[in-house]
Amino acid sequence: MVSANTNTGASSGIGAETARVLALRGAHVIMGVRNMGAGEEVKEAIANEVPAAKIDVMELDLSSIASVRKFALDFASLGIPLNLLIYSSARAYGQSKLANILHANELARRLKEDGAEITANSLHPGAITTNLYRSNSLIMGLVNKLGKYVLKNVQQGAATTCYVALHPQVKGISGEYFADNNLAKASSQATDVELARKLWDFSATLVKK
């Protein structure tokens, strides 16, 4: 049985599907969500499908350092081990995804340097039919009409996340980038070691404020 797994952005789309798959695998899933109502709905839907599922919904707004700190304290108070941390939120999509890859690479480097048996990887789920563009009716219209021909559905989109999180073949692999359930090559900017260090230092400064 997999112990606690914290999954951010779990109230919809890939995050919700990832939570469902983890629950099916016997994991104790902690869903970090901004919208508690939506999170509870996802929890209920998973529980209906997997009666034995162990899921907790906790409030987490990643745009607020105060919220992140409260979430960390609340999780620590549960007294359970953390085996997986899956970040699956989407904000300013292109920039946030680049930052995710850089952060994962730098985290992997630091963990290896410290001799910690912890891995950190990043991935691209592919182009997916989610509600990411719900605020733009024109784009949503195109997605609804053409998406089924060129885009992945949510289950297909969550596949790589679940593969990296759960597959035995990925055990021990760190600092890598995945796509379509395989190792992939990230852009030159995403693999820029110096840029990753600068982002880490900048993030650390923001957190300390």
Describe the structure.
This protein has 2 domains: 1-89, Rossmann fold; 91-209, NAD(P)-binding Rossmann-like Domain (Rossmann fold, 3-Layer(aba) Sandwich). The chain has 7 helices and 7 strands. It has helices at residues 13-24, 36-49, 65-78, 93-113, 137-150, 154-166, 193-208, and strands at residues 4-8, 28-33, 54-59, 82-87, 122-124, 177-179, 182-183. Helix 1 links the parallel strand 1 (4-8) and strand 2 (28-33). The model has no long low-confidence stretch (mean pLDDT 86).
What characteristics describe this protein?
single chain; three-stranded mixed sheet; 209 residues; Rossmann fold; 7 helices; alpha/beta; four-stranded parallel sheet
The number of helical segments is: 7
- How would you name the CATH homologous superfamily of the largest domain? NAD(P)-binding Rossmann-like Domain
The count of DSSP E runs of length 2 or more, i.e. the number of strands, is: 7
SS class: alpha/beta
